[in-house]
Amino acid sequence: MSLLDITDLTVTYSTDSGTVHAVNDVSFSIDEGVNYGLAGESGSGKSTLAEAVLGLLPGNGSVESGSIEFNGRDLTGLSERERRDVLWEDIAYIPQSAMDSLDPVMSTGAQIRQAIQTHRNVTDDKARARVRELFEIVGLDPDRIDDYPHEFSGGMRQRVTIAMALALEPDLIIADEPTTGLDVIVQDKIIDKILEIQDRMDSSLLLITHEIGVIAETCDELSILYGGKAMEQGSVDNVLVNPTNPYTMGLKNSFPEIEEGDQDPVSIPGSPPNLSEEPSACVFKDRCPFATEECEASHPDLVDLPNRNHRSACHHVTKAAQMRRDATDPETWGIPDSHDESDRGEVLLETDGLEKYYEQSQPLLDKLRGNDPNYVRAVDGVSLRVRRSEILGIAGESGCGKSTLGETIALLKQPTGGEFVFDGEPYEHYADGNMREFRRKVQIIFQDPFDSLNPRQTVRQLVGEPLTIHDYRTEERERAIVETLEKVGLTPAKKFLDQYPHQLSGGQRQRVAVAKALVLDPDFLICDEPASMLDVSLKVNLLNLLRELADTEDIGIVYISHDLASLVQVSDRLAIMYLGRVIEEGDVESIAAEPKHPYTTSLLAAAPEKDPTVDRDRVLLDGEPPDPVSLPSGCVFAPRCPKAEDACRESEPGLDTVRDGDHRAACYFPDGETPDADGLADDRSDSTYGDPEFSPPASGDSASD
Amino acid sequence: MSEFQRFLAKRLAISILLTLVAVSVIFVVLRLLPGSPFESLVTAGNLSQQQITEIRAMYGLDQPMWRQYLSYLQSILLFQFGYSILRSQPVWGVLAPRLVNTLILLVPALVTTAVLSSLLGMYVGWNRGSKLEKLSIIATTFLRSTPVFITGILFVIVFAYNLELVPAFGMRSISASPEGYVETFASLDFLHHYILPFTVSVLYYSGDFLLLARNGVVEKRGSEFLKLHRAKGLSEMQQLARAGRNSMLPILTYFALRLGMIFQGLILLEVVFGWPGIGRELVLAIQQQDYPLVQAAVFIMALAVIVANLVADVLYAYFDPTVSTSGGGAA
Predict the structure, then answer these.
(1) Coil, strand or helix: which one is B208?
(2) Integer CA distances (angstroms), A670 to A583, A667, A674, A681, in order
(3) Shortest CA distance from A103: residue in chain B
(4) Per-residue pLDDT tens digits for A391-449
(5) Which residue, of A239, A261, A282, is where some domain finishes?
(6) B61 — contact with chain A (CB < 8 Å)?
(7) What residue spans define the domains of chain B?
């Protein structure tokens, strides 16, 4: 008997504007000890499904029909009291945003203890001992159980919630996007931890995520959800290697991977369906390039594919092989394939040893004594060059100073040292009364499309505002706005002009933000994690848009992100930052293929792999970046570096330590420094998926956490 | 010195500075007022010029301003409030009983309303959209926005005159002449007089706490950590308790500030109910330009607000672990 059996589950939300059919007739079952993945874009109903299982649906949501059987017991029929007994004792939950999901005024240990003591009658001492044990299991210092959530970093907080989920050794753990919002490196560590613990405890896992790569690496079986319908289910090996549903193909193709350097990820155009009515046609038909009349008529049932653990809901399953081939071609999806790389133009922005230090506040006494204050070196001597039509990607963990760097080169923050030249003029020129000109030429796009647009302005006002401020094209305002909206793909522009941000989807909002930046015809664009809040297919859309802008509009772009995979897709050159310094810089191809700095290697290795048949070597970095106030002497990465030797701790390597054409790295013992380049080439041709070997000699040692 | 101690020291220093500023402002403002305490005596023709000069010299009012200021500072900071000019008795002897009368009325009222209306506010915030929520908001907002003397008079008309349940004003029956605080306040007669003004002030303060608590809980209700608490299997009431605990900080701050302001009394209420409190006394003293009495009263009020602020800060640091950076001082 399986552990969790969901049959024909239908969940609806009642809202002011009618009923929303969030989950429609979804069935699947999870066996004991199995990791089950639920994938899909936002709005596909995957979180609703999890909430239905946990009984955490918000007040306006209700289970219309179907059953959720857990160990033979129907959870939908339980009373409030009976359900509380099942929760945590049998089914535990790892929430989405570790940042907000811990009670801020209760110590972490007390929160876990509360979970234990709600269900079991144990003494405080015993519960404390158990909490210490749990902290140890998830890799936290057991002496910190009395610390409050704000004293932990994001990754550590997620470990606390994992520890909490394990407290009573439940049969099933439901993890809702456990790694979204975390850095690649932290994400990798968390996934590794979940898997390791799973092995030990032998519980089942229901993992919900939009990252196909994460599922490919952790799960045995999965369901792909779209518009509240299960589109494809089965074992991960079958579904992800040989998808038979156009949606799965689209989702898989849009997931950017580092190794596909030349192959553009293909996005799924359009946006998720309106769920205000029960689906009568195939939910995916509007976005599906293979849709026919048959698809209009009815939503296909899930069909068992012969002799494998694999089911797909598509009228055209029989043509799967043909569709798979076509789906990799962007033109199938109606996306013009414009990839004529224009030449890179003149140097637009150049910095030399750019610095942004923040003075630490110090006690009055020290100030009187004239002691030098401590500085946080957010940006510490960064030298960059960006040409026209070039996208420079800046990558690094959170806290490495990449966002500060972005704001400093946008002159939103004053540099505290170093040279800054934009368009042939130095910083002093702009600081001295020419800032308005600079502000027109340089635009910045921020991370969060939900907060960066004024909710009380229409699209017309939002996009038109910069025109008014800079008195630019005011006589043909309307035309400028429409042109720009069309440029960013909001067509027909007329339809959007009078809409407010809340009426737009996440992807459309981010496009409005881009349009707002582009309406002034800038020369230079700084994008600070513009895609981190977006679904994969929207993310790819945005990346392709930026690439196109760089190619056709001749503008220089700096793209800041922690997601190396998308950086590799979009950029021409990459700069890897660690603690305010650039530690490696060069052409994307050469960094992705032969990273020199061990830090780059581990960043590259941390990106998940969407192909379940590929075994990835995890390079788990120890610890977290050191305190930026009291940096170690020598190479700043040395404390976490698997290869560090005495020389690294004595003096700091400059960026020119390793040099290979345009590719530079600050490391004394670079990776992949093998004189016989032939051997390397052989290695690469061996692996079918173009997967270069990223295995530094010491990866095994560092894997211990 | 731990982080918390440093924090405390800083706040203390600021409070002392504020007290000095407040004391100086009182001094300056009083001297800027036209006239003097003796004006009325002079116009009544009861005093000769020579007598006036003598009295002025006795009170030190003939000395230069800076010297007056210095001796004023010295005395007031040592809580030496001097003699009331018009009543010819020590200021403290006039103020202390009035202050006690005010506090005995308002402190229990404030505590009661803070506890009851906050709990009610949390409950209605949790059950958002219920009839009880709407009713309680309308009722308390009405009570809060109506001047307290209107509510007071209404209560007097209904409960004292029509129903004749309680006396209309005063602190005790005219015939009673108790000795000492215990005998005064621990008597049925006092309670009988006490209940009406007490009720009115409870209702008057209830709106603020109710709204603060409700808004806090409403804001916290959809948060992720409550979802996790719910997933852990906490009961509805336990979840509400966590939401309440998380929205307690503004209530706490507001309570402390209100507590400080209580030292000023509720003048209108004291007038309506004939309650011999500090508010009425202050009005009288200002009218008569009784310098020492006004100075002392205002000083006590300012000090109370400043101390309450300090307490609010410390409580905040104690109840919100994120306030002090090291997390020190947290329970």
Answers:
(1) helix
(2) 11, 6, 10, 18
(3) B225
(4) 999 988 877 888 889 889 988 888 888 889 988 888 888 888 888 889 989 999 887 76
(5) A239
(6) no
(7) 1-331
Is the bond preceding residue A330 a cis peptide, omega within 30 degrees?
no
Residue A356 sits in the same domain as residue A456: yes
Of the candidates A176, A158, A174, the residue with the CA atom closest to the CA atom of residue A99: A158
Strand order in the sheet with A556-561: A442-445, A524-528, A556-561, A391-395, A573-578, A581-587, A663-665, A658-660
Residue of B3, B5, B130, B228 best to disrupt the A interface, most CBs of A under 10 A: B228
Identity of the amino acid at A391: I
The domain in which residue A74 lies consists of 4-90+170-239
| CB spacing of B321 vs A150 below 8 angstroms | yes
Q: How far apart are the C-alpha atoms of A62 and A48, rounded to whole Å?
A: 10
Q: Residue A326 domain-assigned? A: no
Nearest-by-CA chain A residue for B242:
A103
Both A486 and A541 in a single domain?
yes
Whether the CB of B127 is below 8 Å from some CB of chain A: the reply is no
Strand partners, A303: A312
**Domain check: are A482 and A559 in the same one?**
yes
Provide the shortest C-alpha distance from residue A420 to chain B (in Å): 36
In this prediction, residue B123 carries a pLDDT of 93
B237 and chain A in contact, CB less than 8 A? no
Cβ atoms of A509 and A501 within 8 Å: the answer is: yes
- Report the chain A residue with the minimal C-alpha distance to residue B7: A363
Whether the ipTM is more than 0.85: the answer is: no
Does residue A675 lie within any of the structural domains?
yes
Q: Cβ–Cβ of B232/A54 closer than 8 Å? A: no
Using the 3D structure, point to which of A542, A575, A608 is the last residue of a domain: A575
Q: H or E stretch including B145?
A: helix B131-145
Q: Are residues A568 and A651 in the same domain?
A: no
Which tokens in the block code for residue A580?
């305010």
Name which residue leads in pLDDT, A623 or A441.
A441
A603 touches chain B (CB under 8 A): no
- A548 and A613 assigned to the same domain: no
Q: What is the dihedral of CA B125, B130, B132, B138, to 10 degrees?
A: 80
User: How many distinct structural domains can be found in chain A?
Assistant: 3
A211 within domain boundaries: yes
Q: Are residues A618 and A551 in the same domain?
A: no
Would you say residue A554 lies in a domain?
A: yes
Whether A684 and A561 share a structural domain? no
Token pair 């916290």: residue: B220
Backbone phi, psi, residue A573, to 5°: -125, 155
CB spacing of A95 vs B321 below 8 angstroms: no
What is the DSSP code string of A98-110? TTTSS-TTS-HHH
